[in-house]
Fold this protein.
Amino acid sequence: MKTALVNVFRATFGRAPEFISRAPGRIEFIGNHTDYNGGTVLGAAIDRGVWVALAKRDDGQRRWVSDQREGVVTLSAEGVARQSGVQSWVNYPLGVLAAMPTFGLRVPVGFDYLAMSDLPTGAGLSSSAALELASGLAFLAATQQRPSRETLVSVGKHAENHFVGVPCGILDQGVSGFGRKNHLVYIDCRGPRFSTVPLPDGAHFWIFNTHTKHALVDGLYAARHSECMAAAKTLGVGLLVEATPVTVRAAENTLAPAVFKRARHVVEEIARVEQASAALRAGDRAAVGKLLTASHRSSQSLFENSTAELDFLVDTLVGMPAVFGSRLTGGGFGGAVMALTSGDFGDAQAKAVSDAYEKRYGARPDVLHAQTGDGAALVTV
Ligand code: GLA
Protein backbone atom coordinates (compact mmCIF):
# COMPACT_ATOMS: atom_id res chain seq x y z
CA MET A 1 0.00 0.00 0.00
CA LYS A 2 2.84 2.39 0.86
CA THR A 3 4.41 2.06 -2.61
CA ALA A 4 1.04 2.67 -4.27
CA LEU A 5 0.46 5.67 -2.03
CA VAL A 6 3.82 7.23 -2.90
CA ASN A 7 3.31 6.52 -6.61
CA VAL A 8 -0.16 8.08 -6.70
CA PHE A 9 1.08 11.07 -4.69
CA ARG A 10 3.92 11.63 -7.17
CA ALA A 11 1.64 11.20 -10.18
CA THR A 12 -0.93 13.62 -8.71
CA PHE A 13 1.25 16.32 -7.19
CA GLY A 14 4.51 15.87 -9.12
CA ARG A 15 6.66 15.39 -6.03
CA ALA A 16 7.24 12.97 -3.14
CA PRO A 17 5.26 13.11 0.13
CA GLU A 18 7.06 14.35 3.25
CA PHE A 19 4.89 12.51 5.78
CA ILE A 20 2.98 9.23 5.73
CA SER A 21 0.58 7.88 8.35
CA ARG A 22 -1.81 4.99 8.67
CA ALA A 23 -4.77 4.24 10.94
CA PRO A 24 -6.74 0.98 11.08
CA GLY A 25 -10.42 0.23 10.83
CA ARG A 26 -12.07 -1.50 13.75
CA ILE A 27 -14.49 -4.21 14.69
CA GLU A 28 -16.94 -3.40 17.45
CA PHE A 29 -16.56 -6.64 19.44
CA ILE A 30 -19.13 -6.05 22.17
CA GLY A 31 -20.54 -2.93 23.81
CA ASN A 32 -23.23 -1.67 21.47
CA HIS A 33 -24.13 2.00 21.97
CA THR A 34 -22.46 1.90 25.38
CA ASP A 35 -19.70 4.40 24.61
CA TYR A 36 -21.63 7.70 24.62
CA ASN A 37 -23.47 6.44 27.70
CA GLY A 38 -20.19 6.38 29.61
CA GLY A 39 -20.01 2.58 29.64
CA THR A 40 -17.33 0.13 28.62
CA VAL A 41 -16.71 -1.42 25.22
CA LEU A 42 -14.38 -3.93 23.56
CA GLY A 43 -13.16 -3.53 19.99
CA ALA A 44 -10.39 -4.81 17.74
CA ALA A 45 -8.26 -2.88 15.28
CA ILE A 46 -7.90 -4.78 12.01
CA ASP A 47 -5.00 -4.96 9.57
CA ARG A 48 -6.71 -2.75 7.02
CA GLY A 49 -7.12 0.96 7.20
CA VAL A 50 -6.59 4.40 5.76
CA TRP A 51 -3.25 5.82 4.65
CA VAL A 52 -2.48 9.51 4.35
CA ALA A 53 0.47 11.12 2.53
CA LEU A 54 1.18 14.82 2.88
CA ALA A 55 3.66 17.45 1.72
CA LYS A 56 3.64 21.08 2.79
CA ARG A 57 2.98 23.97 0.40
CA ASP A 58 3.96 27.55 1.06
CA ASP A 59 1.21 29.27 -0.95
CA GLY A 60 -1.57 28.65 1.59
CA GLN A 61 -3.44 26.26 -0.74
CA ARG A 62 -4.72 22.91 0.43
CA ARG A 63 -5.20 20.29 -2.26
CA TRP A 64 -7.16 17.21 -1.23
CA VAL A 65 -7.26 13.90 -3.09
CA SER A 66 -8.81 10.56 -2.12
CA ASP A 67 -8.66 7.26 -3.98
CA GLN A 68 -12.35 6.85 -3.06
CA ARG A 69 -13.46 9.94 -5.02
CA GLU A 70 -12.76 11.54 -8.39
CA GLY A 71 -10.86 14.78 -8.72
CA VAL A 72 -8.84 17.24 -6.68
CA VAL A 73 -10.54 19.45 -4.08
CA THR A 74 -8.68 22.76 -3.75
CA LEU A 75 -9.42 24.97 -0.74
CA SER A 76 -7.52 27.86 0.74
CA ALA A 77 -6.29 27.55 4.32
CA GLU A 78 -9.10 29.91 5.32
CA GLY A 79 -11.63 27.59 3.68
CA VAL A 80 -12.66 25.53 6.67
CA ALA A 81 -16.40 25.53 5.99
CA ARG A 82 -18.21 22.21 5.82
CA GLN A 83 -18.23 20.70 2.34
CA SER A 84 -21.17 18.97 0.70
CA GLY A 85 -21.83 16.55 -2.16
CA VAL A 86 -18.83 14.72 -3.64
CA GLN A 87 -16.47 16.90 -1.61
CA SER A 88 -18.01 15.92 1.72
CA TRP A 89 -15.30 13.30 2.43
CA VAL A 90 -12.97 16.27 3.12
CA ASN A 91 -15.07 17.08 6.20
CA TYR A 92 -13.25 14.37 8.18
CA PRO A 93 -9.75 15.85 7.82
CA LEU A 94 -11.18 19.40 7.84
CA GLY A 95 -12.92 18.57 11.11
CA VAL A 96 -9.59 17.40 12.52
CA LEU A 97 -7.98 20.71 11.54
CA ALA A 98 -10.90 22.60 13.10
CA ALA A 99 -10.57 20.56 16.32
CA MET A 100 -6.79 20.85 16.79
CA PRO A 101 -6.71 24.41 18.24
CA THR A 102 -9.31 23.33 20.86
CA PHE A 103 -6.61 20.96 22.15
CA GLY A 104 -3.90 23.64 22.03
CA LEU A 105 -2.45 22.25 18.80
CA ARG A 106 -1.15 24.22 15.80
CA VAL A 107 -2.37 23.34 12.31
CA PRO A 108 -0.37 23.16 9.07
CA VAL A 109 -1.31 25.94 6.64
CA GLY A 110 -0.87 24.82 3.01
CA PHE A 111 -0.32 21.24 1.85
CA ASP A 112 -0.97 18.54 -0.73
CA TYR A 113 -2.88 15.66 0.79
CA LEU A 114 -3.69 12.16 -0.45
CA ALA A 115 -5.79 9.53 1.36
CA MET A 116 -5.94 5.91 0.22
CA SER A 117 -7.82 3.07 1.83
CA ASP A 118 -7.80 -0.71 1.81
CA LEU A 119 -10.75 -0.75 4.18
CA PRO A 120 -14.18 -1.54 2.78
CA THR A 121 -16.28 1.60 3.25
CA GLY A 122 -19.80 1.44 4.63
CA ALA A 123 -19.02 -1.94 6.18
CA GLY A 124 -19.34 -0.82 9.78
CA LEU A 125 -15.54 -0.94 10.11
CA SER A 126 -15.25 2.76 10.78
CA SER A 127 -13.34 4.10 7.83
CA SER A 128 -14.23 7.61 9.02
CA ALA A 129 -12.37 7.29 12.35
CA ALA A 130 -9.40 5.78 10.47
CA LEU A 131 -9.42 8.76 8.11
CA GLU A 132 -9.55 11.18 11.05
CA LEU A 133 -6.67 9.56 12.93
CA ALA A 134 -4.42 9.10 9.90
CA SER A 135 -5.07 12.75 8.96
CA GLY A 136 -4.41 13.93 12.51
CA LEU A 137 -1.06 12.11 12.63
CA ALA A 138 0.02 13.61 9.30
CA PHE A 139 -0.98 17.14 10.38
CA LEU A 140 0.89 16.72 13.67
CA ALA A 141 4.00 15.43 11.90
CA ALA A 142 3.91 18.41 9.52
CA THR A 143 3.85 20.79 12.50
CA GLN A 144 6.35 18.79 14.59
CA GLN A 145 3.98 18.15 17.46
CA ARG A 146 3.69 14.91 19.42
CA PRO A 147 0.69 15.00 21.73
CA SER A 148 -0.40 11.87 23.60
CA ARG A 149 -2.33 9.13 21.85
CA GLU A 150 -5.30 10.03 24.10
CA THR A 151 -5.25 13.55 22.64
CA LEU A 152 -5.09 12.29 19.06
CA VAL A 153 -8.10 10.08 19.71
CA SER A 154 -10.03 12.95 21.33
CA VAL A 155 -9.26 15.25 18.40
CA GLY A 156 -10.77 12.64 16.04
CA LYS A 157 -13.90 12.31 18.16
CA HIS A 158 -14.23 16.09 18.44
CA ALA A 159 -14.07 16.34 14.62
CA GLU A 160 -16.83 13.77 14.27
CA ASN A 161 -19.06 15.34 16.96
CA HIS A 162 -18.64 19.01 16.11
CA PHE A 163 -17.70 19.20 12.42
CA VAL A 164 -19.16 16.11 10.79
CA GLY A 165 -22.06 16.34 13.24
CA VAL A 166 -22.44 12.76 14.51
CA PRO A 167 -22.91 12.43 18.31
CA CYS A 168 -20.73 9.29 18.44
CA GLY A 169 -18.74 8.08 21.43
CA ILE A 170 -15.04 7.23 21.66
CA LEU A 171 -15.17 3.62 20.42
CA ASP A 172 -14.10 4.04 16.81
CA GLN A 173 -11.30 6.54 17.34
CA GLY A 174 -10.19 4.81 20.57
CA VAL A 175 -9.79 1.41 18.95
CA SER A 176 -8.13 2.85 15.85
CA GLY A 177 -5.69 4.71 18.11
CA PHE A 178 -4.97 2.03 20.71
CA GLY A 179 -5.29 -1.17 18.65
CA ARG A 180 -2.77 -3.93 19.08
CA LYS A 181 -2.28 -7.10 17.04
CA ASN A 182 -3.86 -10.20 18.66
CA HIS A 183 -5.54 -8.03 21.27
CA LEU A 184 -8.85 -6.36 21.90
CA VAL A 185 -9.00 -2.78 23.08
CA TYR A 186 -11.01 -2.29 26.26
CA ILE A 187 -12.29 1.26 26.78
CA ASP A 188 -13.77 2.69 29.93
CA CYS A 189 -15.46 5.57 28.15
CA ARG A 190 -15.80 7.76 31.22
CA GLY A 191 -12.06 8.54 31.45
CA PRO A 192 -11.70 7.65 28.76
CA ARG A 193 -9.17 4.98 29.73
CA PHE A 194 -7.74 2.49 27.27
CA SER A 195 -6.20 -0.94 27.84
CA THR A 196 -5.78 -4.15 25.88
CA VAL A 197 -6.91 -7.72 26.48
CA PRO A 198 -5.21 -10.64 24.64
CA LEU A 199 -7.39 -12.54 22.20
CA PRO A 200 -7.62 -16.23 23.10
CA ASP A 201 -5.70 -18.55 20.76
CA GLY A 202 -7.77 -19.87 17.88
CA ALA A 203 -10.28 -17.00 17.86
CA HIS A 204 -11.14 -15.75 14.39
CA PHE A 205 -13.19 -12.85 13.11
CA TRP A 206 -15.35 -13.05 10.04
CA ILE A 207 -17.21 -9.99 8.76
CA PHE A 208 -20.25 -10.17 6.48
CA ASN A 209 -21.13 -6.82 5.01
CA THR A 210 -24.68 -6.64 3.69
CA HIS A 211 -24.20 -3.31 1.88
CA THR A 212 -27.64 -2.40 3.18
CA LYS A 213 -27.99 0.89 4.94
CA HIS A 214 -31.10 2.48 6.35
CA ALA A 215 -31.72 5.74 4.49
CA LEU A 216 -32.01 7.59 7.79
CA VAL A 217 -29.08 5.95 9.55
CA ASP A 218 -27.50 9.17 10.89
CA GLY A 219 -30.86 10.44 12.13
CA LEU A 220 -31.64 7.09 13.77
CA TYR A 221 -28.27 7.08 15.54
CA ALA A 222 -28.93 10.59 16.85
CA ALA A 223 -32.45 9.57 17.90
CA ARG A 224 -31.09 6.63 19.94
CA HIS A 225 -28.54 8.98 21.51
CA SER A 226 -31.37 11.35 22.54
CA GLU A 227 -33.47 8.50 23.96
CA CYS A 228 -30.53 7.35 26.09
CA MET A 229 -29.97 10.90 27.39
CA ALA A 230 -33.71 11.20 28.13
CA ALA A 231 -33.59 7.91 30.08
CA ALA A 232 -30.61 9.12 32.13
CA LYS A 233 -32.43 12.35 32.93
CA THR A 234 -35.58 10.59 34.13
CA LEU A 235 -33.46 8.18 36.18
CA GLY A 236 -31.72 11.15 37.78
CA VAL A 237 -28.21 10.18 36.60
CA GLY A 238 -25.73 12.02 34.40
CA LEU A 239 -25.22 9.08 32.04
CA LEU A 240 -26.77 5.61 31.84
CA VAL A 241 -23.55 4.00 33.09
CA GLU A 242 -24.56 5.23 36.55
CA ALA A 243 -27.78 3.19 36.38
CA THR A 244 -27.95 -0.61 36.71
CA PRO A 245 -30.21 -3.30 35.27
CA VAL A 246 -32.05 -3.26 38.62
CA THR A 247 -32.62 0.51 38.79
CA VAL A 248 -33.73 0.63 35.15
CA ARG A 249 -36.26 -2.17 35.61
CA ALA A 250 -37.57 -0.47 38.74
CA ALA A 251 -38.22 2.68 36.67
CA GLU A 252 -40.16 0.92 33.92
CA ASN A 253 -43.39 2.79 34.66
CA THR A 254 -41.78 6.21 34.69
CA LEU A 255 -40.00 5.81 31.34
CA ALA A 256 -41.69 5.96 27.93
CA PRO A 257 -41.81 2.36 26.57
CA ALA A 258 -39.19 2.93 23.84
CA VAL A 259 -36.90 4.84 26.22
CA PHE A 260 -37.17 2.00 28.76
CA LYS A 261 -36.08 -0.53 26.12
CA ARG A 262 -33.09 1.58 25.03
CA ALA A 263 -31.97 2.03 28.63
CA ARG A 264 -32.31 -1.68 29.37
CA HIS A 265 -30.20 -2.53 26.36
CA VAL A 266 -27.44 -0.15 27.41
CA VAL A 267 -27.15 -1.18 31.08
CA GLU A 268 -27.39 -4.90 30.28
CA GLU A 269 -24.89 -4.49 27.45
CA ILE A 270 -22.41 -2.85 29.83
CA ALA A 271 -22.82 -5.89 32.11
CA ARG A 272 -22.15 -8.16 29.10
CA VAL A 273 -18.94 -6.26 28.28
CA GLU A 274 -17.68 -6.97 31.80
CA GLN A 275 -18.65 -10.65 31.53
CA ALA A 276 -16.99 -10.87 28.11
CA SER A 277 -13.72 -9.40 29.40
CA ALA A 278 -13.68 -11.94 32.24
CA ALA A 279 -14.43 -14.79 29.82
CA LEU A 280 -11.70 -13.55 27.46
CA ARG A 281 -9.16 -13.51 30.27
CA ALA A 282 -10.20 -17.09 31.09
CA GLY A 283 -9.78 -18.02 27.41
CA ASP A 284 -13.39 -19.23 27.30
CA ARG A 285 -14.33 -18.62 23.66
CA ALA A 286 -17.70 -20.36 23.97
CA ALA A 287 -18.80 -18.11 26.84
CA VAL A 288 -17.63 -15.03 24.94
CA GLY A 289 -19.58 -16.18 21.88
CA LYS A 290 -22.80 -16.57 23.85
CA LEU A 291 -22.47 -12.99 25.09
CA LEU A 292 -21.95 -11.73 21.52
CA THR A 293 -25.14 -13.41 20.38
CA ALA A 294 -27.01 -12.13 23.45
CA SER A 295 -25.85 -8.63 22.50
CA HIS A 296 -27.36 -9.08 19.05
CA ARG A 297 -30.66 -10.36 20.46
CA SER A 298 -30.80 -7.24 22.64
CA SER A 299 -30.17 -5.04 19.59
CA GLN A 300 -33.01 -6.83 17.87
CA SER A 301 -35.60 -6.56 20.58
CA LEU A 302 -34.59 -3.66 22.84
CA PHE A 303 -32.38 -1.17 21.01
CA GLU A 304 -34.11 -1.94 17.70
CA ASN A 305 -31.06 -1.12 15.63
CA SER A 306 -30.92 -4.41 13.74
CA THR A 307 -32.46 -5.23 10.36
CA ALA A 308 -33.94 -8.37 8.79
CA GLU A 309 -30.75 -8.85 6.75
CA LEU A 310 -28.47 -8.66 9.80
CA ASP A 311 -30.77 -10.99 11.76
CA PHE A 312 -30.73 -13.49 8.90
CA LEU A 313 -26.93 -13.57 8.91
CA VAL A 314 -26.71 -13.95 12.69
CA ASP A 315 -29.32 -16.73 12.69
CA THR A 316 -27.50 -18.56 9.90
CA LEU A 317 -24.08 -18.17 11.55
CA VAL A 318 -25.06 -19.21 15.08
CA GLY A 319 -26.45 -22.46 13.69
CA MET A 320 -23.00 -23.48 12.44
CA PRO A 321 -20.69 -25.64 14.59
CA ALA A 322 -17.49 -23.55 14.26
CA VAL A 323 -19.24 -20.31 15.27
CA PHE A 324 -19.01 -19.21 18.92
CA GLY A 325 -21.29 -16.21 18.49
CA SER A 326 -22.35 -13.47 16.11
CA ARG A 327 -23.77 -9.96 16.25
CA LEU A 328 -24.16 -6.77 14.30
CA THR A 329 -21.05 -4.64 14.56
CA GLY A 330 -21.18 -0.84 14.77
CA GLY A 331 -24.11 1.51 14.92
CA GLY A 332 -26.59 -0.84 13.24
CA PHE A 333 -29.55 -0.04 10.97
CA GLY A 334 -27.75 -2.00 8.23
CA GLY A 335 -24.06 -2.57 7.70
CA ALA A 336 -22.24 -5.66 8.82
CA VAL A 337 -22.35 -8.69 11.09
CA MET A 338 -19.29 -10.19 12.75
CA ALA A 339 -18.81 -13.77 13.87
CA LEU A 340 -16.29 -15.12 16.36
CA THR A 341 -15.27 -18.54 15.11
CA SER A 342 -12.77 -21.32 15.61
CA GLY A 343 -10.16 -22.13 12.97
CA ASP A 344 -12.59 -24.71 11.56
CA PHE A 345 -14.61 -21.92 9.99
CA GLY A 346 -13.15 -21.33 6.53
CA ASP A 347 -13.97 -20.21 3.02
CA ALA A 348 -16.39 -23.11 2.49
CA GLN A 349 -18.43 -22.14 5.55
CA ALA A 350 -18.35 -18.46 4.58
CA LYS A 351 -19.58 -19.40 1.10
CA ALA A 352 -22.44 -21.39 2.57
CA VAL A 353 -23.52 -18.31 4.55
CA SER A 354 -23.28 -16.08 1.46
CA ASP A 355 -25.19 -18.62 -0.65
CA ALA A 356 -28.01 -18.72 1.90
CA TYR A 357 -28.08 -14.92 2.05
CA GLU A 358 -28.14 -14.63 -1.74
CA LYS A 359 -30.99 -17.12 -1.98
CA ARG A 360 -32.98 -14.97 0.43
CA TYR A 361 -31.99 -11.44 -0.59
CA GLY A 362 -30.71 -11.79 -4.17
CA ALA A 363 -27.29 -10.29 -3.45
CA ARG A 364 -24.11 -11.60 -1.87
CA PRO A 365 -22.56 -10.04 1.22
CA ASP A 366 -18.89 -9.09 1.14
CA VAL A 367 -16.89 -11.48 3.29
CA LEU A 368 -13.73 -10.59 5.18
CA HIS A 369 -11.69 -12.92 7.38
CA ALA A 370 -10.39 -10.01 9.42
CA GLN A 371 -6.97 -10.12 11.05
CA THR A 372 -6.25 -7.92 14.04
CA GLY A 373 -3.63 -5.20 13.68
CA ASP A 374 -1.83 -2.36 15.44
CA GLY A 375 -3.16 1.14 16.08
CA ALA A 376 -2.58 4.39 14.19
CA ALA A 377 1.06 5.31 13.54
CA LEU A 378 3.37 7.40 11.40
CA VAL A 379 5.14 5.42 8.69
CA THR A 380 8.68 6.14 7.52
CA VAL A 381 8.57 7.87 4.19
C1 GLA B 1 -20.90 3.87 15.84
C2 GLA B 1 -20.32 5.04 16.65
C3 GLA B 1 -19.66 4.55 17.93
C4 GLA B 1 -20.60 3.64 18.72
C5 GLA B 1 -21.22 2.59 17.83
C6 GLA B 1 -22.31 1.80 18.51
O1 GLA B 1 -19.87 3.04 15.39
O2 GLA B 1 -19.41 5.75 15.86
O3 GLA B 1 -19.23 5.64 18.69
O4 GLA B 1 -21.58 4.41 19.37
O5 GLA B 1 -21.81 3.13 16.66
O6 GLA B 1 -21.79 1.09 19.59
